[in-house]
Design brief:
binds 5-phosphoarabinonic acid; 46% helix
Length: 446
């Protein structure tokens, strides 16, 4: 058993024939993806990645992870977007959101290079004081400003602390042949890992981009790949009736046609929160183009039922929800009977807390659907490496096929360049002088 799509709460919002009517579009999109005839077809390396990955590099990742565990109290992972979110998501969902606070034999893992916040950077630097540190810098282009600037800082920190030995503590994940980071790594003698040419950032978690930090956290990357492989095999069928990823894709597509503007990914476990951030990037960057795309958002319940619950229940009917129903939590907690029952909570006692959490979910599903919010459900047996590998591939495939149904290129991100150009111009990067003047004039500056 792995991830399945349950549409039973969608009755009354969407009929089966609406999904059946999309079957030919799903089939065409599936064929385009597998024949490599669609837009962005030079970025399809992720499709067969769970079977066709570089086995030699995979073993090297496991060795490097072991070395990091032995040499470092702290691993600083530098990257942004697709070079950041997947690793963090998998570590937090499988280990814990509080991974760094738990007793463990693996290093603390801090993520930086995903902002230009000086305060955040100083905090990470202070957390490295007196500790043995290793750095994994991840950038496919090798030129992303946020990551490159942070790497300049941590490279110096390691060189000041370890001199020549710094190079044995720096691991670079970047392009196979080209780019500033690749050149620097070769010159300095860093161990390098590859972001394959045909795998875009947000589809790269199952390459060295995600796997090295994930393995350093003590997570079984063989089982992660095994789960992804199971999904690759299970989701080969082009039929919308039997392929759950495609039923999910068709449902999202139909929701947009019905005028919904946003999908809320709902979970009832805080460990899933960063996985939802990864989903947001996957869908936001893949589908948000040409004026199209559902806005991907997320909530963690019960927490957000007490902040956003009101507007979801009674506010504008712009959204639908997709619940991630984790059938068996990583750990359970037995609620004991209290003879005094001063808090009046004995109606909850003598059962596992997961039963209460599942009931909160049922209550919410009923309340939201009765309140006019369509709710789809993704049912997951539990959380472990295998199931998360499966889920990653499931979302990637559903997202890509829906992208082709929408008539967009799911594998580029031209819109991200706009802020970069302005940033370079305003910061005075050579080559951007003219735009800098134009922008300053617009801003009313000299
Ligand atoms: O999905 C993407 O392609 C982006 O989010 C990139 O991963 C992100 O911009 C980082 O790019 P790079 O790895 O080149 O530093």
């Amino acid at each position: 058993m792995a991830l399945t799509f349950n549409n039973s709460y969608l009755k009354g919002f969407m009929s089966d024939h609406e999904i059946d009517a999309l079957a030919p579009f799903i089939k065409t999109s599936h064929d385009m993806l597998h024949a490599g005839t669609g837009l962005g077809n030079d970025f399809l390396g992720w499709v067969n990645l769970p079977t066709d990955y570089d086995k030699e590099e995979f073993e090297r990742i496991k060795k490097a992870a072991k070395k990091i565990q032995e040499q470092a109290d702290v691993l600083v992972v530098l990257g942004i977007g697709g070079s950041y979110l997947g690793a963090r998501a998998v570590i937090e969902v499988i280990k814990s959101q509080m991974y760094n606070n738990l007793a463990k034999k693996t290093p603390q893992i801090y993520f930086a290079g995903n902002s230009v916040s000086p305060s955040y950077l100083q905090e990470i630097i202070s957390l490295c004081k007196g500790k043995d540190v290793a750095v994994n810098v991840i950038s496919k282009s090798g030129t992303t400003t946020e990551t490159a600037l942070a790497f300049r800082v941590f490279k110096k920190l390691l060189e000041d602390k370890y001199g020549e030995g710094a190079k044995d503590r720096i691991y670079a994940t970047t392009d196979r042949k080209k780019g500033t980071l690749k050149e620097l790594s070769d010159k300095m003698g860093y161990e390098t890992f590859v972001v394959p040419d045909d795998v875009g950032g947000r589809f790269s978690v199952l390459t060295a981009v995600g796997l090295l930090p994930i393995a350093a956290a003590g997570i079984d990357i063989d089982a992660l790949m095994e789960g992804a492989r199971a999904a690759q095999n299970a989701l080969m069928d082009p039929s919308v009736e039997t392929n759950d990823a495609y039923r999910y894709a068709a449902t999202r597509f139909a929701m947009k046609q019905k005028g919904k503007a946003m999908e809320l990914l709902v979970s009832f476990d805080p460990c899933f929160a960063t996985m939802a951030e990864w989903y947001k990037q996957l869908y936001g960057e893949s589908q948000g183009k040409d004026g199209k795309g559902l806005f991907p958002s997320s909530v963690t319940f019960s927490t957000d039922l007490h902040s956003l619950g009101q507007i979801i229940q009674d506010g504008s009917k712009m959204l639908f929800e997709t619940f991630v129903d984790i059938k068996k939590p990583k750990q359970d907690f037995f609620i004991e009977n209290d003879p005094d029952n001063m808090d009046g909570l004995n109606f909850l006692s003598n059962q596992e807390m997961s039963i209460v959490n599942a009931t909160v979910m049922q209550a919410t599903l009923l309340a939201h659907s009765e309140g006019g919010v369509p709710c789809a459900v993704l049912e997951m047996p539990t959380i472990n490496e295998y199931e998360i590998g499966y889920l990653i591939y499931f979302f990637e495939k559903a997202c890509a096929v829906e992208g082709y149904m929408m008539g967009i290129n799911p594998f580029d991100q031209p819109g991200v360049e706009s802020y970069k150009k302005n940033m370079f111009a305003l910061l005075g990067k050579p080559g951007y002088e003219k735009l800098g003047e134009e922008l300053k004039a617009k801003m009313g500056k000299e």
